[in-house]
Specification:
Elements lengths: L1 E4 L2 H22 L6 H18 L2 E8 L2 E13 L9 E10 L8 H15 L5 E3 L6 H9 L14
Parallel strand pairs: 4-5
Antiparallel strand pairs: 1-2, 2-3, 3-4
Length: 157
Amino acid sequence: MIIRAYQADSDYQHVRACAVALQDYERLIDPRMPGGESIADEYMSNIFKQCKQYTGRLFVAEQQQEICGYVTVYTRYVSNEIEDGPREFGYIGDLFVKSKFRDQGIGNQLLQYAEEHARREDVKEIMIGVMAANQAALKLYQKQGFVAYAMMLEKKL
C-alpha cells in the first residue's frame, strides 16, 4: 500500500466514489443527511475550494493499483466562528477507507501521513471531527492521541 498526492487527471472519479460512500455511511448514522450521489460533485468542488482557501492537500491510499481511501488535511485552517478568534490550526476534513480495505491499518496510515504533512508545514495543533455514533473512527482518533475538544449535543423535540 502506498499513500501519495491526489492526481486530478486520474483520481477524481475514484475519490468521488469514496466521498459518495463516506456520505452514505454517515447517512446510515443520521438518515437526515443527503445521499452521497446527490451531493457528490458539489462536495468534491468544496474539497478543492477548501484546499485552496486553507492550504490543503488531498492524499490517496492505493493498494494493487486501486484507490482504497483518502484523507484531506488543511494546514492553515481558521474557524468561521467569531468566538474562536483568528487562531490558525490544522484540520483533517475527511478520512475514509473503503469497507473491503478496513481493519488493515490503512486509516491509521492515512492519518499518520496527514499529520506528518502538517508537521512539515509547521502546524502546531490539528483537529478532526467525528460523528458521536461512529465508534470505529472515534477509537482510531483516540488511539492516535486526539482528545475531545468540544461536543455538540442534540435533543429531539
